[in-house]
Amino acid sequence: MADAAPIKPQQKKFDRRIIDGPLPAAVWMLAWPTMLQNIIGGLQGVVDHAMVGHYVGLNANAAIGVSLQLFILVIVFVASVFSGMGVMVARFAGAGDVEAVNRTVYQAFLTAVFIAVGVLAPIGYFSAPWLLSMINAAPEVQREALPYIRTMFVSSIGMLIFFMMSGALRAAGDVKTTLRMGIAMTSMNIVLNIVLIGGAGPIPALGTFGAALGTAISGILTAAGFMWLLFSGKLVIRFSRAMAFGPDWAIIRELFRFGLPTGFQGIAMNLAGLLMLRFIGGLEYSAEAQAAYAVGYTELFSLITWTSVGLMGATAAVAGQNLGAGQPDRTAQSAAVAARIGLKVAAVVGLAFLLVPRVLLGAFALTEGVGFELGRQLLAYLAVSGFFVTVALTYTGGLQGTGDTKSPLYISIASQVIVPVGWCLAFTMTRGLTAPDIWLAIVLGHATRAALSVLRFRQGKWREIKVPALKTAAP
């Protein structure tokens, strides 16, 4: 008698509450795990900055800040594939098309691996010195930053797979798996950073390089865990060994059609950030100002952006799934529901920026002198900017989730490049640029982005965007 064929594990089903249940509950169901994941994940940056600030000094804080700006600038283009993937996954999940979801994520995975390993790692490694010189980083900052940024580029595949799976599962309605994996990755990262930055036993203190090495190891281990889950059938998305390694160009074209505008948007925003760093580098106390910017804007302001980005992802998933299910009116309400949640968080964090700046900055060893004064000053501006950022990001999520990825690109160019850079250039060419001018430029850019994002979403042009059905079955 022939042996019975092995039973393939049953793939989990999509959560239909996103398209059938109360809308505020659907948004919150997707938002809170992502917000918590972002907060916990952001702790790795806090640990990096706090530990190198105490063990190495101010230059190390500035080095991590400028390195992350450069790394994000480059990696965001690869991650744009995931934005296109999210649009398609949300639509297909809303329509209940399991096979299309699986195939879309698999092709996004193949594309991202090729770009990360074949393009991003070698080019990033060899171009790192030029990139650091381009942003006018001080020589002592460049010495600390070079091994950090090179390690991040070479090991980027782990982080990319984590980002890909986070976006795919969120678009499909499963955020709790990503939360669990994010907690595991952050826990590993914190432990590794404590050991590698300051040294322990036979392991020497590696300083800034140790921070990058801890991030690299934890990211690769987490990516391996995700791959096991994908083949196990324990997720709402499933990979099979029967899937071919060859590209499906029909899917890849759609990934880039929806994703490339988001990639260019990210590049534009981060180029603006690099230009702002260059302006900061030209100030009288450039190292102190770069450290204040790295701590205040990159880390502490993340208390607002972590939650806002989580709400943006939740809005994108709810908006896309309901549009895929043929319920555009629920899509139209999703951004406003998410924005109300974000505004409450921004109010609490902004109040802390105003009342206890010394406590917040002290966690990063910015407790006195010019560095502290510039940091305290920046936090006061960011207390206002937080309201604009959370509105901008939630409505951006609504636009991107429905497939309107071009509008956020144009809005970002206007608000994050033209407004703040133009503002700083005007003062540079007249009376001379000061730190408060740069801090105000950040607020003006965020305010412009919020206003334009709300106006564009309310126009409702996204109702006309179509995602083509996949014509052939997976191999």
Describe this structure as you would to a colleague.
This protein has 475 residues and is mainly α. It has one domain (18-464). Helix content is 80%, strand content 0%. It is built from 16 helices and no strands. The protein has helices at 17-20, 23-55, 58-94, 98-134, 139-154, 156-172, 176-198, 207-232, 249-281, 286-300, 302-324, 328-355, 357-362, 369-401, 406-428, 435-459. Helix 2 (23-55) packs parallel to helix 7 (176-198), helix 4 runs antiparallel to helix 5 and helix 7 (176-198) runs antiparallel to helix 8. It is globular and about 60 Å long. The two termini are 29 Å apart. Residues 1-7 have low confidence and may be disordered.
Task: Write a brief structural summary.
The chain has 475 residues and is mostly helical. Helix content is 80%, strand content 0%. Helix 3 (58-94) runs parallel beside helix 10 (286-300) and helix 10 packs across helix 14.
